[in-house]
Amino acid sequence: MSTEQATLLPRPAYRRVDADIAVTVVLLVVASVGWWWAATAMDGHAMPGHTMPGMTDGAGASDGMAGMEMAGDVMSSSASAGIAHTTTTLAAFLVAWVAMMAAMMLPAVSPVVGLYRRAVEKGRAAPLPVFLLGYLLVWTVPGIPVYWAWRELAMPLSDGEVWAGRLAAGALLAAAAWQLGPVKAVCLKHCRSPLSFFMQHGGGLRRPVTALRLGLAHGGFCLGCCWLLMVVLVALGTMNLYWMAALAAVIFAEKVTRYGERVAQVTAVALAGLGVFLLIDPTAVASLT
Amino acid sequence: MTAATTETKTTWELSGEGFEFCNCNPGCTCNFSGFPTSKDNSCKAAVGTRIRTGRCGDVDLSGLDVAALLDWPKAIHDGGGKAVFIVPAAVTDEQLGCLAQIFTGQLGGMPWEILGTTYEVAGVVRAEIEFSGEGTDAGFTIPGVGQARGSTFKNPVTGEPHQAAIVLDDGFIWSRGECGQGTFDVEAEGIHLAFTDTNWIRYEFSWTNSG
Asked: What is the distance between the alpha carbons of residues A117 and A19, in angstroms, rounded to a whole number?
């Protein structure tokens, strides 16, 4: 290696790392603001929520015409206020969710993104955001069911209710099994081999539609790889920074390091261990969230 | 960025036979798990390419023998590689221009559309590439650059030839390769590669940027 190369190489490398760190920090800030917004919106909603059996009563009452008529104007106004509130909270939640997914996943997909970015820089591919959009869309959709799970689980988890602990144990055991299964292996293989991913699914990357489709495809493999790890995160309270960091580290190690398949297996053992522990003592879930 | 707007519609197609020698353990892991199995995690290769039929726009590329020395410091997808292309004296400037555009991905088409963005071209050397041998007992010699010699795996017990092939239905460089172990020592334009009993694959290829 010549001396001029030795002096030339590190600079762009550092700049790229700096940029990656900056992007991750921004995403974490966006995620925090989103969480705060969602939590505030839900708290504001919680009081009327408890005293607002309007929606459930309304649903029950709709069986009989009399009930519908009696509920009348009061019902519809409180229901629409509730829906508006839910929409705001859901929007805030999705902002936080997408930012969190991006923050957790981007380090792990950096080899794929880096390869794609190089193609963009040389004019061989559609702009990077098009590819990333496809990827993030795949991770946005699960945010909708996760929103309901988060709302239902927040209180039971902090109270250490037995059923919530058993649910978390189930999620952990399911995730452990998934880690060792064939679908995970196939998806992980695609995630770990950026070059062959593009070779197998690529061609015509300059067309934005192709770039978007590739982003969706890659997001699909990523989802197949990690969706049960996200279920674990949700079952343990969704917004827990420690679990987020731990799972992000696992995902990064699985996808980017040389011993990724081994990491997936070790993770399975750890998940199973924690699952069994929670089965024995479900109330301990409160101290884990 | 500007290149994207000056997209050219020149179509090209190449098919023929490839001779790949690299520094990994036998069996090209970059085609599977994406990470080299070489000692220092790098990917270094000497590749001979016999173009049986080929064209780029109106330019005929059939019958050309070319080669490349490739040196990536890490996995291929991490980029930062250097490439030296070797072409015989008989290759015209027009043909060379076409090959350069194809192999650096400028004309699109897999695998070069992506692969071509992972290295910079360090130089082009004019030299003859002499292919020889049958099956996996084969290789090439490039006067002034060096040589690459492959052999069939040997059964560790009986010492008999042990033929191995890798089939990749959706492989990105080739779909079926005959594997063996190879030894190569080549040097050009500041890239010196010398490895013994490492990966060697002989494969059929068919690449195009149309369809």
From this structure: 13
Given CB atoms, is B41 within the 8 Å cutoff of chain A? yes
A226 or B165, greater pLDDT:
A226
Q: Is the pLDDT of residue A265 over 80?
A: yes
In a domain, B142, yes or no: yes
> Is B111 in CB contact (< 8 Å) with chain A?
yes
Q: Which residues contact A136 (CB under 8 A, 6 or more apart)?
A: A98, A101, A102, A215, A219
A83 touches chain B (CB under 8 A): no
State how far the Cα of A22 lies from the Cα of A11, in Å rounded to an integer. Answer: 16
Greater model confidence, A66 or B202: B202
Task: Identify the H or E element spanning B119.
Answer: strand B119-126
| ipTM rounded to 2 decimals | 0.74
Task: Determine the residue among B29, B77, B121, B209 to mutate to test chain A binding: the one whose Cβ has the most chain A Cβ atoms within 10 Å.
Answer: B77
Please indicate whether residue A31 or residue B74 has the higher confidence score (pLDDT).
Answer: B74
To the nearest whole Å, the CA of A193 is away from the closest chain B CA by 4
Q: Does B77 touch chain A (CB under 8 A)?
A: yes
- The mean predicted confidence, pLDDT, of chain B is 85
Residue A193 to residue B30: CA distance in whole angstroms: 8
Give the number of domains in chain B.
1
Selected residue of A116, A199, A201, A255 to mutate for chain B interface (largest B Cβ count, 10 A): A199
Q: Where are the domains of chain A?
A: 3-288
On whether residue B210 sits in a domain, the answer given is no
pTM of the model: 0.75
pLDDT digits (tens, 9 = 90+) for A112-161: 888 898 888 888 889 999 999 999 899 999 999 999 998 899 889 988 89
| Structural domain range at position B159 | 2-205
pLDDT tens, position by position, A89-116 = 888 888 888 888 888 888 888 888 888 9
> Is B78 within 8 Å of A121 when comparing Cβ atoms?
no
Do B132 and B141 form a contact (C-beta atoms < 8 A)? yes
CB contact (8 A) between residue A9 and residue B171? no
Domain presence at residue B136: yes
Give domain status of residue B211, yes or no.
no
For A235-265, b/e burial (b = at least 16 CB within 10 A) is bbbbbeeebbebbbebbbbbbbebebeebbe
SS3 A221: helix
Query: Which of A32-36, A132-136, A167-171 is least confident?
Result: A32-36
Can you tell me the distance from the alpha carbon of A42 to that of A90, in angstroms, rounded to the nearest whole number? 9
Distant-in-sequence, close-in-space partners of A19: CB < 8 Å, separation ≥ 6: none
